Every structure is written in C-alpha cells, then in structure tokens.
Amino acid sequence: MDVNRTIVEEHCEKTVSSCVRNVARRNALGKIEDLYRKLVKRQQQEALLILHEQGLFLRADGWL
Questions:
Q1: Alpha-carbon distance values, 40 to 7, 14, 18, 27, 31 (Å)
Q2: With pLDDT > 90 as the criterion, what percentage of the chain qualifies?
Q3: Residue 58 pLDDT more than 70?
Q4: Distance between CA 40 and CA 24 in Å, rounded?
Q5: Is the pTM of this model over 0.85?
Q6: Rounded to the nearest 10 degrees, how much is the dihedral formed by the CA atoms of 32, 34, 39, 41?
Q7: DSSP 8-class letter at 60
Q8: What are the φ/ψ torsions at residue 55 (nearest 5 degrees)?
C-alpha cells in the first residue's frame, strides 16, 4: 500500500509542478506581450507627436 501511495504522491507532485511551471510560463508570456503592445503604442504616439510638431498631420486619406 505504501509503495502505491508513494508512486501516486510523486506523480501528483510532478503533475502539479509541471502545471505550475506552465501557468507561470503563460503568465510571463502574457506580460511580455502586454509590455510589447504598450511599447509599440508609446512609440506610435511619440512619432505622431514629432510629426505634429513639424506641422505634418496624418489623415485617413494621407498627409496634410
């Protein structure tokens, strides 16, 4: 009985730790994606501000 219990416990520990690692990995990737989106958005805003300061305005049909 004790051998079976030990085998089951070890299997459960490995499965749980594997799940925890996978969740942590997905969370980290999600955070990286969020940071990347924020960076791209900030760069776009800065570029538009620079163009605006130079008197260039972006419209849907092109530049003014």
A1: 49, 39, 33, 20, 14
A2: 19
A3: no
A4: 24
A5: no
A6: 160
A7: T
A8: 85, 10
Strands (E), the chain: 58-59, 62-63
Using the CB atoms, write b or e for 4-33: b if 16+ within 10 Å.
Answer: eeeeeeeeeeeeeeeeeeeeeeeeeeeeee
CB atoms within 10 A of CB 34: 10
Place of tokens 């997905």: 26
Integer Cα distance of 49 and 54 in angstroms: 9
Average pLDDT, rounded, for the chain: 82
Amino acid in the structure at residue 48: L
